Amino acid sequence: DAPPWRAERGSGGGSGGSRSVFVGNLAYSVTWPELKDHMRQAGDVVHCNIIAEPGTTLGSKGCGLVLYASFKDARRAIRELSETTIRGRPIFVRENREEDDDGPPRGGGGGFERERSPPHRGGGGGGGGKY
Fold first, then answer.
1. How open is the CA angle 129-95-12, to the nearest 5 degrees?
2. How far apart are CA 117 and CA 101, in angstroms?
3. Rounded CA separation 112/128 (Å)
4. Global pTM?
5. pLDDT greater than 60 at residue 17
6. Residue 117, Cβ density class (10 Å: 0-12 exposed, 13-18 middle, ≥19 buried)
7. CA-to-CA distance for 104 and 101, rounded, in angstroms?
8. Quick one: which of 9, 42, 55, 127 has the fewest CB in 10 Å?
């Protein structure tokens, strides 16, 4: 089974087609349920994850990933939820550009999937972790 942040691409090909969005400029205190509730304004949220930053006071990197049930919902989130605020901070929303990795983007998981990313199983080269 692929991890939830590894979204399937739409059949349109090219850029676009992702059901997964990256949300940046989050307050470090924002939790995955808060982010999920906010992002539901754009559609059906399948999975939500705050990117962890071990060693910080609240353990957050200040960004997260949201997987929608459809490409249409993800596009709507990018269009309508960028510049909205969570805990007084304006967020930005863009397509998740790193969804083809074996795990969440740099920094590991957060929220309810914390520290449970699958091991890298690629052939040749180094592991799948942070550089």
1. 110
2. 11
3. 21
4. 0.67
5. yes
6. middle
7. 7
8. 55
